[in-house]
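Appendix B: complex inputs.
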Amino acid sequence: MKKKVLLSALALTFGLALTACGNSGSDKAADTGSKNETAAAKSSGDVFTIGATGPLTGSAASYGNSVKNGATIAIDEINAAGGVKVGDKTYQLALNFQDDEAKEDKAVNAYNKLMDSKINVYMGAVTSGSSLALTDLTAKDNILQITPSGSAKDITKNPNAFRLCFTDPLQGKMIADFVLDQGYESVAVLYNNSDEYSTGVYEAFKDELNAKGQSALIVNEQSFTNDDVDFTTQLTQIKASGAKLIFVPAYYEAAAHIVQQAKQQGIDSAFVGSDGWDGIIAQLTDESQAEGAVFLSPFLASDPSAAKFTDAYKKAYNATPDQFAADGYDTVYVIKADMEKAGSIESDDLIKAMTEIQVDGITGKVSFNADGEPNKEPKFVTITNGEYQLFDNN
Amino acid sequence: MKVNKKTIINIVIMLLAYALVFVLINSGVLSRQYKSLIVPICVNIMLAVSLNLVTGFLGELSLGHAGFMSIGAYSSALLSIALSNTFPPVLAFFTALICGGISAAFFGFLIGVPVLRLRGDYLAIVTLAFGEIIKSIINYLKITGGSKGLSKIPLYSDYKNFTVVFVIMVITIVLISNLIDSRDGRAIKSIRDNDIAAESIGINISRYKVMAFVIAAGFAGIAGALYAHNVGIIKPGIFDYNKSIEILVFVVLGGMGNIPGSIISAIILTLLPEFLRGADNLRMLLYAIVLIVMMIFNNSKFKSGLSLNRTFRKLGREE
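Resulting structure:
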């Protein structure tokens, strides 16, 4: 007993010593980092650091990496063009991106790490859960927070927080309006009930139909959970219901399986999806399987207005940019416009100027209201001949 | 416990450890990143020590520890949200903590009674299934916020209230190590070493198995409650089998049936991913490599050589 208590106490002190060492170590790292920055600042004006967090590892890693890559391209473009002019000073932009593994507790650590190394504005988090865990912290630090892709409603509840993407409820509402516009007689829904994004979009979709008195439109509701790959049971039920349209608010991996299995069962209903569908074509073995499917998306890589970004992205990362990359890219330009408008890099001025700017980005023209929500037009994208095309309403 | 020189030394060391952290936090030496790690370290120590009771001392492999943690986290969070307007914070927090511990212990009892009739691999699989069931149920319930998670949990146990977390952690360690050295603890260990022999000398195997399981679940519940009140948002996805495995890794790395080992490995493995932040994209790869190296070291001749060393032996000698 004595030995154990003694050893545990020893272990504790050991651990604390470790913490202390780690601290001094990280300070050193931060020092060298800031030395580099000051060196850069001497040669080409001052540095404005954008801190960001998002998943760079783990199952959601593709989102974080896309945002990081997109933001890097925007920063390189801006710096190459001479930086951002704020008043009589010119700032070079720098990005400090920390991994949060899409986990709330890691996001808090990552954000605190950013604050230790001094950032001017916080871009993040990439995922909803992490953003929610941080929103009160950023408010306490009174730093401008812009999430490129966190879609949960409460993220922007504080006055210092803004978002670039659509909220889940807004997406559900817009898709419901779209379905009503197109005059479908019956809809079946297949959603992921263990995913907040999917359930959020679906619930808003249902609410909007209820509000319009069209709740009878939904003839069948089926659900699945994360990592499901077999949707035969659900699709059999949907087929039996005879729905003319299948609404799948989900990410592209699941959507690809669903579309393929529906075709194998001989279901010829149309598909409509949420913005998670972006990237579905690369997942399909036979591109004709998704022919005619429509989904909401803020960004279309083949759109002429995004050509410059798409080319730069392809050159740098050898991949077609997705909407997360576009969100990251646009967020940097929003920050640039905000700095210019504010005429200062003080957080208070930056936050105040957010509602006064308008940015013509690759995800559309966007301005922000006082609630922190973006005003921008949705784009509907359809898959024609194995390519993403803007949906033509006529 | 007799009050003698060693006890006093232990108490002094505990107090010193506490004072050190206290000074580090308040003098501003510690960066924000490491301040935010103090509570997770304490939570992980509690999880590792409590799982060690089942895995190391009872000798049963449990892969559902995160399930008990989630029960504690959710029940305490729901209670403290409900109480936050009417009760003073201190009272609300302690009620929530106790509620978290008791409800996790209750579920430990529910699952323990039928399941502990199984042994070895069978028990491991059933606990794994139990963790997944809990996760699914939380996902379906309305009151828990489903997959969106439960947010706006009052931050009662963040690093500013580090004292409370530290005290609870010390209580956990002392209670569990005292239990192990008690008559009941020896019964638990005898089941691990040879259950037939234990039964033949009149030890009620089922009773002690359930007892160890319930106590471990209860402390995991309290750890979960501390976790919830530190982060402020909990989602069912956090408490999946990966979390259970993570806790098991703490225990295995520290050594089965070795409480100081669990504490050290919980500290190291919580800090390690944060140390490696500089490595950027290679971070988790490095983490895995360091884990392998540490596991090999743990089994190496070098380490057993170290433990034969005079000074080290003196340190760990029983009086």
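The mean pLDDT of chain B is 87.
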